[in-house]
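ADP-ribosylglycohydrolase family protein: structure tokens wanted.
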Amino acid sequence: MPTPSTVVDRAVGCLLGGALGDALGTPIEFAQLSDVRAEFGEQGVTEPPPQALLGDSTQMSLFTGEGYLHAWTTGNNGGAWQPVEALAASYRRWLTTQQDDRPPGAATGLLAEAELFANRSPGLTSLRALQEEELGSPERPRNSSKGCGGVDRSAPLGFAPTPEMTYRLACQSAALTHGAVGGWASAGAMALIVHLTAVQGRRLPAAVDQAAGRVLRDDSETAAALAEAATLARLGASVGHIERLGQGWIGPEALAIGVYCALAVAKPEQFADAVRLAANHSGHSDSTAAVTGFLLGARHGTPVLPRQWLARLELADVIERIGHDLGASCSGEQFNERRYLGLA
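Answer:
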């Protein structure tokens, strides 16, 4: 099993890696590959912009992490353990950043970060769902969406205490906004892969296989997508293989493409190449590259992340702090719990 310090480093690597992938793919999110190559050259986009701004999946992942840590610290200090309610409240705080132009006067936590009050083309499903009085659950869905807005924010839940808690909590978290089984089961599988690699030290192919077996009980589409991703990865890296997996606009496809790229370009020193592969296709480039970055960061930790990219990443210190505290909560290391106790 990994040591506590290793788990903490992998948690930081996970969140920063996902943010780098997100920042790489965001400028070409809605572009066809032919247009990307016409603008950036045959290799497509190869590095984040000089100002690597956070995409919506990173924004929501941060609020996932903060919401979970609020629940964890509350439970650890004698309060009720209510993670789903805490995550719902955290996502509504994120919604405030999309509706207002500056932090409210008494803001705490992420809601006090002015840079997060920026619209980065978030999914309409999440925006609409979070404005409703009642949010969804796997048992009581509020819509029929299986978009990727659940899977690309679920990585922080990989640092829950056990594999099954990780899977179920990520499913419940995604179902708050995405009602179709593919929308929430793919999020559960994503978080489970992160947990198995970062916390339990499993190799990525074995973690993907285990997640495919678990998600099969809920969603055959996600399980089949993961199996095909693993099969194609053994044949090598190819944009054509990505096209076989889809475009990434729905949860199972975004997860499969991200997993495929992480498996096909798997060496620690190939992080940049893997997220480039995940970004440069005619689909949901930011989400698929974010998924790849989350997974490789969770597997290898911070040493694999390009230093030059990190230096230009928006709110890198905030991302690192949330990642550190997630890893610490999972591995028994101390962290500043008061930071999360006062959140509404």
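The chain has a mean pLDDT of 97. The radius of gyration is 18 Å.

Cheers.
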